[in-house]
């Protein structure tokens, strides 16, 4: 999925609706467009990538301990061109860019070679990013 087209669509949606946070996730990467700034937004996406990898790897994530077990899951190498495109278009550095008065945060996904379960992965990603952002903002 073209990250520039996705970002432009997210911008239009944010500008028309006034929502403060838009989260997009696909097989290769995650994006968050926020009207607030901070590394905690990107870091929450990193947490979501770990949670999703743990869910795929183990089939369930009943506690934070399982998320730690996903640290060894490799990062999706095919996300490198996405990161390069965002850097070229928006000057993204370390997964963060300023775009039309919003912060755009990016992280590549982690890919589990033989997933035990993919049911609920999207919910895991979205909820983990949201909760992670809430917690990290207060640290």
CATH superfamily: Ribokinase
What's the CATH topology label? Answer: UDP-N-acetylmuramoyl-L-alanine:D-glutamate ligase
**Strand order of the main beta sheet, please?**
1-2-4-3
Spatial shape? globular
Strand content: 15-25%
Rounded average pLDDT? 95
Walk me through this protein's architecture:
This protein is an alpha+beta fold and 139 residues long. The chain has one domain: Ribokinase (UDP-N-acetylmuramoyl-L-alanine:D-glutamate ligase). Helix content is 50%, strand content 16%. It contains 5 helices and 4 strands. It has a 4-stranded antiparallel sheet, sandwiched between helices. α2 runs antiparallel to α5. It is globular and about 40 Å long. The N and C termini lie far apart (33 Å).
Q: Topology, please?
A:
Blueprint: H1 3-17, E1 21-25, E2 29-34, H2 39-58, H3 64-68, H4 80-90, E3 96-99, E4 102-108, H5 121-138
Antiparallel strand pairs: 1-2, 2-4, 3-4
Helix pairs in contact: 2-5
